[in-house]
Amino acid sequence: MKIDPDDFRVGDGQEVDLDKWPTKVKPFYESREEYEALLADAVAQLSKLQDVLYASNRYALLVIFQAMDAAGKDSAIRHVFSGVNPQGFQVFGFKQPSNEELEHDFLWRTTRCLPERGRIGVFNRSYYEEVLIVRVHPKILDGQNLPPDAAGPPAIWKERCRSIVDMERHLHRNGMRIVKFFLHVSKQEQCKRLLARIDDPEKNWKFCPADIEERELWKEYMKAYEACLGATSTPGAPWYVVPADDKRNARLIISRVLRETLEDLKLKYPEVSDEQRSALRNVRQRLAN
User: Fold this and answer.
1) How far apart are CA 208 and CA 195, in angstroms?
2) pTM beyond cutoff 0.90
């Protein structure tokens, strides 16, 4: 069964009701063996595309992952990008801002980490936290040293979304392609995964008591995500709502979206001039002798 990325893409200006977006769909694989073969092929294709991206040095790819706790962001990144060349790949995670970061606008800390041309950059959480967790916990704004005339809730969320869209359009015009994934996990599946972190000694380190407190704000988070996805999914920087109850299926979907994104760029290796070819022939002759 072929994966169609459009099935998971949020339309430009689309009103989002996450209750109508599935957290689980029919698997695109029939067995563990088939899944592993499909993922291996996807990883190999992504590796080839990354090689041309790096060589052409015209575009950059920014991949953003957002989700509730235990939705599978880390494992998706680890599996999907397992075959890329580390020389052209970088991952950044963003949690609570530092004192230095709070002295700047909310986009500053992530802008410093954008990938260079020819590279793939991954944000595990991102500037979108400023319209998600901060929206659910607006008291966080008190510590951001905003000027007295800055907008407060609820106007600030609309303003920040507009700032994000403007920035992403600017980046797109300058050669950066942005793909954003919301890993849509159900509350029931999240519960199973949090219990697994408690019951498995090797996963105890992953468990944070604060995850339970955030879980109790599930409805508030879903509303924040709905507003965010609808306001910031654009043709140049689309959101994909990936059903995440099945981690394997989610990885295959993510891989397909990334592959099509890079293929659409119609990348080619740099062309060599006649003069350069002549020089290469001369060098080859010298090496052969």
Assistant:
1) 12
2) yes
